[in-house]
Amino acid sequence: MVKHDDKFKHLNYLVNNKKIWCSEIASPEKNTPGIRIVFNDDLLQKKFEGNDNSAEIDLLFEFLSNLNIICPDKSYNSVKESILKKLQNQKTRFPPPGKSHPHCCS
User: Fold this and answer.
1) Could you give the CA distance from residue 70 to residue 86 in angstroms, rounded to a whole number?
2) pLDDT tens digits for 44-82?
């Protein structure tokens, strides 16, 4: 989307053909921090085709690490450990390509 839509051309520098996603902290408005994450659609799809939820956890940690830079929290590492204990080695929540998600309404 970033590569093909002029509305997002200002994010082209975040497009990376070797990484699944790139993120940054930015300010969409003065004094309003935000987090931008730009995905490589092809690599992301392959990563989410796995049998476990490691990609979901990696993406969550990418977001949380940026959030912790914006608003540091002393309990950040313990929160990450808790998330890993609870979520690690579970099945992915993303359906394979062409399949609908079992939790979606039809």
Assistant:
1) 25
2) 877 777 777 888 888 899 999 999 999 999 999 999 999
Tokens standing for 16?
Answer: 């990376």
The DSSP code sequence of 27-93 is: EEETTEEEEEEEE-HHHHHHHHTSSBSHHHHHHHHHHHHHHHHHS--TTHHHHHHHHHHHHTTPBPS
What is the pLDDT averaged over residues 8-24? 81
Model pTM above 0.90: no
Encoded amino acid at 57, one letter:
I
Do residues 25 and 69 touch, judged by C-beta distance below 8 A? yes
Tracing tokens 């609908």 back to the chain, one arrives at: 100
User: Which residues lie across from 23 on neighbouring strands?
Assistant: 37
Instruction: Show Cβ contacts of residue 62 under 8 Å, excluding neighbours closer than 6 positions.
Output: 21, 23, 37
What's CA 31's distance to the chain center, in Å? Answer: 23
